[in-house]
User: What shape does this take?
Amino acid sequence: MRILIIGGGGFVGQKLAHALAARGSLREQPVAHLALADIVEPDTVEAGFSVTTHILDIAERGQVDAIIAGDWDVIYHLAAVVSAQAEADFVAGMRTNFFGTFNILEACRTRIGTPVLVYASSVASFSTDVPQPIQDWTATTPQTSYGTQKAIGELLLNDYSRRGFIDGRGVRLPTVVVRPGKPNAAASSFFSSIIREPLQGEPAMCPVDVEQEVWLASPRVTVENLVRVAEVDGDAIGPMRNFSLPGMTTTVKAMLAALEAVAGENVVGLVDHERNPTIEKIVQGWSSQLVTDKADELGLIRDESFERIIEEFIANDMKPVET
Ligand SMILES: NC(=O)c1ccc[n+]([C@@H]2O[C@H](COP(=O)([O-])OP(=O)(O)OC[C@H]3O[C@@H](n4cnc5c(N)ncnc54)[C@H](O)[C@@H]3O)[C@@H](O)[C@H]2O)c1
Assistant: This one.
């Protein structure tokens, strides 16, 4: 089993690489080789099989052809210019999210063999302008450039699968919380900051109303589902190759209450509130009510509670508080 993770230097890519290293197998075969490719050289992972790291700009067709020509059984496409950045810089978003995705699909089409291709789409490909809750088959009516670029990728993934060029699986990730490290350029970044920073003894800013709803999942559940999505039989997915990953609907208020329950009122007191209309507009356009029938049929998992998500962050990802 040879696996390529494009976007392998990012948050989800690194978590997935560590999970694959711990498992040692995928699709009932031992992993022989894992390659991590990203526009910035990814950190490697310790594993019982060989791991290589590669610098790759997916907007450069020649680079994409060269790496996809490897004999990959499973390719994860996780590379993206994320939501707020794609909204601020239209060309950058189109370059990576549209042309980059197209390059990957085209490189798969022209190689020998039919790899399993797992594509990270987003709940941002939906909007609140259609009847809620969102079903797997609800029309994608994105309200951002990022969501539009993700939705284009979904359509192409379907057709490249139908034509037999790939065995594609497009999964709409919920907002993944708690993201470790520093804030990123996603409009959803604050959903992690308001938990991560206070737990690490630092102030955080909440830019939306506390009643704002969000559809989220933990890193553990998201990565386990990315593994399971690669393992299922393509025929079991059916002709509609894109579906939502399980998440939970909660509010900022409930998230902060969970933080207080886990870590106390002094910690939650580090969260300040100042509304940011740009962030608020993007986040309000995302649906927080989704039905995940396909994922449930395929045996994907979901989080039990937001308290547990916080506890997992404390156990696995929190940097020590400086004293
Ligand atoms: N994390 C979330 O909450 C979330 C939610 C919905 C969807 N997603 C999607 O899941 C995927 C992974 O998300 P993440 O949180 O790990 O994001 P991330 O930003 O941490 O990782 C994305 C990676 O893509 C790389 N990249 C950007 N442009 C590139 C290019 N031209 N060529 C090669 N690599 C490039 C970046 O360097 C980065 O390492 C993304 O496609 C994202 O859109 C994530």
Notes: The mean pLDDT is 96. The pocket of nicotinamide-adenine-dinucleotide is lined by residues 7, 9-13, 38-40, 56-59, 78-82, 96, 100, 120, 122, 173, 175-176, 184, 188 (CB under 6 Å). The radius of gyration is 19 Å. Residues 2-173+219-226+235-244 form a domain with the Rossmann fold fold (CATH 3.40.50.720).
